[in-house]
Each structure stands twice: as C-alpha cells, then as structure tokens.
C-alpha cells in the first residue's frame, strides 16, 4: 500500500539553539520512499549525517525567533506485518556482530531486571517468534495503552509498576523483556496508518530467524501500514528532534497519514 | 540558488539482472535536498543501503523486459564554488583517518606514476589550494575537454597520453596528480547547472585546509550550481548504475537541470 | 611510563554459554600496546570484532566445564593525566557527528534528570574543562568512594540518592552531570597503576576543546597510569565480559598492574 | 597449528616522513592472535586506527635518522585451507552490502576487461567454488610464479600480458577474473608457513557460499599455515607500510615464520 505521511513542527526560540532532527525516513527492506520533501523555514546551513543506527539526522542552529519544519513522504509499505510463528531464536553466537548492541540494557530498557518476568510470560513457548508474540500479548492484556497519558519517556521498570502507558512505554517494556531472553530488540519511531488519535508512533522490532519482525502491543491483528523514521536502543535514541539548551516554547506538532493511489 | 535536477533512464533486459543504483543525492555540508522523488517502474523489492563512501545506493533485481527509472530533486546549492588560495596543505599525519583512503592509487588514478609531472606543474606554488588550482589550470590548457568523446572510463595514464577526454577523464588525471603530492582527492558525479551538452557530470574535490574544495577543469571561473550525487575514489565507485550479467539493451538516458525559485 | 597489566578470569559453566569479552586494549592517541597476550583455555573458535564504540570484542561459546582467560599487555601511557583549564566547551553544532551519541541519556546515566544539579555545581565556572573539573570535585566531596561496596551497576539517580559508590557509580553520576550540560561524556573501563585495592577500574572522559580528557573522582591530583580497555555510554557497554544464559559459577578474577622498564 | 611470525624493518630517513603501517594481524574467524608484540624504535606518538577494510593501521611521523620496526605474533591457524567444491555462487542481490565493493574494478584489478577470458577459463564449471578453483588452476598453468621478479605492483592486464609474476601479480589477475564473473574477491597480505624464499606473501580470497575462501596460485594442494595481516581491493590497499614524501633509504626487511608448540 502507498501512504502519504507528513509531520509539521513549529518552534519559538528564545536563544540560538542547536537542533538535531530525525525526520527523514529511509528506504530499506520494508519500505520504499518514492517522494520525500523536507522544508525548514530557516536560512541557515543544515548538515545531514548518518548516525550509529543508520538513521539520517539533520543538524542546524536555529536563531532566535520562530520557525517551522515540514516533512512529507510518499511511502510504499506493507498492508500487513510479516508474521512467522516458526521463526526461530538465533543463538547469541550466531548473531551478526552489529546486532549484538540490541541485547544490552539501555536508558529506558533495564533488561537486566526482567529475566524472571520474561521467563514466566514465555514459559511454554518455543524460543523465537512465539516468545516475542507472547510478550506482546501479555503487554496488551496487562499494560493499559492510554495515548497521550505521558509527556516524557519512562523506563520499563516504571511502566511495569504503573501498568499503563503510551506506545513508547509499552515498547520499552517489550524490548526489555525480549533482551532479557537474549532476543535482540530495538525501538522504532514512525508513522502508522489509521492510528487514533493520529500522532507519531512507536513500536518495537525483535530479531528472529535472521531478520527483524515488527511487534506493536497497541494494535490488534496483523494490520500493517507502518512507516519507520528512526531506529535505536530506546526512546533516548529516536527523538524526532533533540534540542540543546533552554526548552523551546510554543511547540506545535501535526501529523498526517493518508492512503494514496499510485 | 535552487536547482531542480532530474535523471531518466530506460532499460530493456533480456534476463533477470541485479542492479545497483547511485542516484539519490544526499543533503550535506554543501547542498540541501528539499524535495526528492525516485520512481522505478518495477514491482520488486528495492533495498537502499549506504556504502563505504557515504553514498545512498539502491539494489534490486530487474526482471526480463523493459523498465524505467526517474529521479528528481529540488536542491539548494551555491551559485559560486568556494575558493580559498590561502587554504593550506594538510600534513598526512594531521589528516582524519577516514580521509587517508583518498591518498591511495585507484583503478583509474595511478597516482603512483605521476609524481614528476605533478611536481613540474606545481613547481612554484604554495602547498595546498594553489597547487590544486595549478593542476586544474594545467588540465584546462593541456587536455582538451571533448564531451561525449568516450563511452567507458580510461585511466589517468591513458588520459595523459591521449591529451583529450570527457569530464570523467580530466577528473581522473586531476585526482592522480593531487594524490601524487599527498593531497587527498576524490571523484564526484552529479549535476551541473548550464552544462552543455547537458548530461551527468563529473568533477573532483581536493581536501585542503581541513575541508573538501571543488575543482572542475571543464569549467571557467568560479561558477557554481553543482549537485553531488556520489563520491568515490574514481569512476569505478561512482557509476550511477551498475548492472551484473549481460549488458542491457536500449538504454536511454535523459538529464535536466533547471533553476527554480523557492 | 611503561605498565605491565594483566587480568585472569576463571569460570565454571553448567551449560554451553555464549561469551563476549572486551579485554584487548587498543593502541590509540593516549596509549601504545607494545605487547599483548590473550589466552583462553578452550579449543573453540573465537571471533574478534570491533563494536560501535571502537572496542575489540571476542566472541565464543564456552562448553560445559571450567576454563580460564588470561590477558596481559605492556603499555606505554602517561605518568600524568592531561589537564587544561582553558579547554573550552564545544558548541553542539561544532561537535563531530560521531561524538553526538555521548550527549544522550543511557541506561545508567539519566542525564535528562540532572540539569538543575549540574547547573548548581558549575554555577561560577567557565564552560568547558572548568565545569567538568567542578563536577569531579563535587563528586569527590559529596559521594563517598567505597571500593567493593556493590556488585552490579546502579544508575546516576541511585548513586546520587545513596551518596556512595564504587568507581563505576561515581563515573555514572559524573557522566550524567556532564551530558546534562551538553558536554559529551563516556565511560572508560581499564587498569590504573597503584589502584588500591587492585581491580579493574572505571573512570570517565569528557569531550572538551576538541578532544577527550580523563576525569576520575576516585583519585587525587593529576596522577596518570591509566590503561583503557573499553569505551561506551556507560557500564552497560563496557562489561569486560558478557555471558548469555545461566550465570556462571566459581568466578575468580585477578588483576595486576606493574611498572616496568623498557 | 601454531605459528610464530615476525617482521623486521629498518629505515633511514632524510627528512621527517609520515608513515602508515599495516602490520598488526587481527584475530578473526580464521585465526587467533594469542601473542602480539609491536616495537618501533622511536619516541613519537603513534596512533592506531581501523581502516575501511577492517585493518588495524598505525600512523606516526618518523624524524630524520634511522629507526626500526619489529613485530611478532603467535597465531593459531589451520594446517589446511578450507575447500568446498559445493560452495555455490552467491547472486549479487543476495550479497551483504559491505561485500559489494569487492565486485568493482580497482587500481590493479581491471575486472571490467576480463569477462571473456574468465568465461573461457570457467566454461564447464559449476558457478561458485569450482569456477574460482578453475581460475586458480589456470593461473598455476599459465602464469609463471617467479618470486622476487618485480619490485612494484603491476596490474592484472600487465600480468596477463607478461605471463609471469610474483605472488601479488598472480593474485591481481585471479581477483580480476573472479570479479568479472560477479564473484567478490579481495587481496590478502600476510605470512605463509614454509614459503620459499621466505617473505611477506600475498594471496586472494573469494566470497562463495556465504563466506570467504582462500586461493593461492603459488602453492600446491590444500596446504595451510596462512596468517592474514591486511585485506583490501588490491595491492594499493595492503601495503605493509606507506610512506609519504621522499623515498626512504637503506630499507631492510626480514620475515620469519616458525611452527611452535603451545
């Protein structure tokens, strides 16, 4: 299916402020970006670079005053996520070296503290896809998904205690549970077709059977329509914008996702 | 200045053929891609990856039959190339590690064979920008630029013997001469505003005074309007498409570069 | 000065267990490894790879039973750490792209929560080295260094609450405070001459004035004798060994550091 | 088998000269470096870095005068090279992205000019290992291996014309032939047990069936005892030392390889 996605951001800055954006989706195994538009209403140098996790990031210093950012892309993505209950656990010794970092605990995914819970959730499952599927189902049943209920990231431990959270929070707990079973897991931020209320979305991927699979504890069935914008260990890595210095005022954010015909 | 650039390619394939494209310009220190469109008239998976030199490449297998590729971008670039006669030679020991590969000889730039010529061309020049400028001027005077005069890359040695060549050939000789003086140099393929006859273009960059500078022995003065699409050691690295297997028939290629207002 | 460092580890494994070691120090700007010995008493394939942070890591699967690891190196390092109170803060927009990851919060360094404390500690300091020096001094005064007082990493928030910790804990808090001021900071694990009691050690580095400087809140003055073995965002990245699966029994660890003449 | 390898170099320099060495073998899938010693008789800063191809390189500036370099390693390697006549050709579309660069022509391997010869040599072979084996056998039969017969690298085209060469030359032609068949191939420089006369050696590897295999047209049978020191596209990438500026005088080079018991 073809989706047209867009993100509008507006800032009002009191002092010159360095920004790093992560808003340009990349073509990859799962999606093809046929059209990509990226407007920043500033006449300053903008440098684009690729970070550790393969994301395209944009750096610039915003001068005092207001400015806006607008990105839109036409993306070919799948109508359904890939599902394979037979995809097997990859032994640590057989993982590609550049996947190993997704086994470690990170800022919001204290995987070192979730081994018992993960074992109990996946007790009767085959190692691999079935384990992660059980984790996702457990999240759906046990952690209430309440969009808009928090403004800043909380960690897997806090999510597990609070028993509710936004998409980012459920992903953190899912990732921590996977990693505690030696299953590589990473955070994805991006767009999702028909998300309600519409916003940037977060989900997680687990590395099973030699590739990454999508898991989203906020959704039902195998519905697809995902557009990935950034990958990382957790929310610390995938902010769509990072600013350094005083917090910007009057931020507005508007997201759209529309199915189109091509 | 804002340029709208485009490239159309048409192929007719007799047998399923793997392709690697290098046709998506990247935003960087010198240019900003505000709009980027990339159409391939095939319904096959296309994987994008970043290669050694930071280029975005696209891989796919074209099935038997005909297909087309169309890319267009709106790019902000400079009206004039940067010129700095005071930019100094960077001693090898002070070069960043990832620049060192641009000192070595490569397929079409046998820099190991040009030390005498380079010394003679730059005899009275200050080390750095002035040396490379002298090399560029020498190329303009001594190697006739004849667009369309060759179909496949020839090496610096061959260009020096032949005394004429296309943009790619002049760049190869320029790069070989720079490297023989321990000045890192790389090939760039891309678009150039008002190039006549219009086509994909090639020029070279030299690393002086801590950054890359543009040199183009086919042009006069400080005229800008360059849009970089790919970087590499020489033409072997920056083909806008590589195909593997039997050569494709009926190739058509159409390039446009238009100044636009934004 | 020349140091001979060594690390002995002994394991007893109940089930085949994948290990990843980070025990081979690398030559770099600050140290030169003249001799390097690395013995593992197993006849299994061992693969070495370089991770995200430039560390040499070794992977293998240990079979059931006991085995030992022994590494020793002769290293040239400085007798005194570099100190430069004039080294200035690097604005975020001027940081190299590959340094930016050291600004983000990580598993044990919740830098997003320490801005007020960092500002209060560094209130009257010039941006840059003087700020980090003030942080280090504050750690020395306010957080008791108690070697051997904890077995597993705790985070900066926990360290700040507990008011005491091992070398790793003080580093976590130091890193979190630096990052909250937009100063890149990273964890280092390695050896330290005359550490008492002798053990593997941890300290932190801050990126100021275009390079990394060493800071160690557990030591006094400008004493050097550091040998770096691994770098990372925090303790999650720099374990000298990671094992996957059931915890190994009967672990023994012995560390030596001796000054030698060359 | 365990080998103790060593390399001694002596230089006499007329003017301060930047050097880049590639003399530290790395542990990897095929070899384990248990002991590694690296002495440079200079009191200057030496920086080690990892280059594009994963090699450990050492940079320094040698002052005027004489100095020596001595490296030795104890390495576990195989007594026999791996041979698998069933290892199959990997279609270009299935190659890992970071392998693709080994398909391109390079300074000394003009693979773009060898398609006809490669097809004729491998006419009746199964795609994959059998093709490369046929290339190696053809090299043994058709290109005389004359150790010490040349001092500087010549390219595949020149080797093919000259019909004789040193180990490096045979490798260049072998690599060019492989690449012309879309088989990734790379140059390896290193040590070989029982090489006569003893010297640094060069051979090539081809990527077949998902891994690299060793091929050496200068040797007979499946004899092993290889210790890899550097990898690259061709001899331009794997010089054990590169110097920049006037050529050094009085170079001496001494190589030893001895089997040891461990």
From TrEMBL, chains A, B, C, D:
Residues 159-219 form the Transglutaminase-like domain. GO terms for molecular function: peptidase activity. One of its GO terms (biological process) is proteolysis. SUPFAM superfamilies: Cysteine proteinases (SSF54001). The keyword Protease applies. Pfam families: Transglut_core. Keywords: Hydrolase, Protease. The keyword Mitochondrion does not apply. This is Cysteine protease. It comes from Polaribacter glomeratus.
């Amino acid at each position: 299916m073809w989706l047209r996605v867009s993100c509008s951001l507006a800032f009002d800055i009191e002092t010159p402020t360095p920004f790093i954006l992560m808003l340009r989706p990349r073509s990859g195994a799962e999606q093809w970006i046929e059209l990509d538009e990226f407007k920043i209403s500033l006449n300053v140098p903008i440098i684009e670079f690729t970070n550790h996790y393969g994301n395209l990031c944009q750096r610039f210093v915003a001068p005092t005053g207001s400015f806006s950012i607008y990105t839109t892309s036409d993306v070919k993505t799948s109508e359904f996520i890939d599902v394979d209950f037979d995809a097997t656990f990859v032994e640590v010794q057989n993982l590609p070296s550049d996947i190993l970092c997704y086994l470690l605990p990170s800022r919001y995914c204290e995987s070192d503290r979730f081994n018992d819970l993960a074992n109990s959730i996946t007790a009767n499952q085959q190692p691999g896809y079935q384990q992660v599927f059980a984790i996702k189902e457990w999240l759906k049943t046990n952690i209430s998904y309440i969009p808009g209920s928090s403004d800043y990231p909380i960690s897997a431990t806090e999510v597990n205690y609070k028993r509710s959270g936004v998409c980012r929070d459920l992903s953190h707990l899912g990732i921590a549970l996977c990693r505690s079973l030696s299953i590589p897991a990473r955070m994805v931020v991006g767009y999702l077709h028909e998300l309600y209320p519409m916003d940037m979305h977060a989900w997680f991927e687990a590395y099973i059977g030699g590739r990454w699979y999508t898991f989203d504890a906020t959704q039902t069935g195998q519905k697809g329509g995902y557009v990935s914008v950034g990958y990382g260990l957790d929310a610390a890595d995938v902010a769509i914008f990072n600013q350094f210095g005083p917090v910007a005022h009057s931020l507005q954010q508007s997201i759209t996702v529309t199915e189109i015909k091509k």
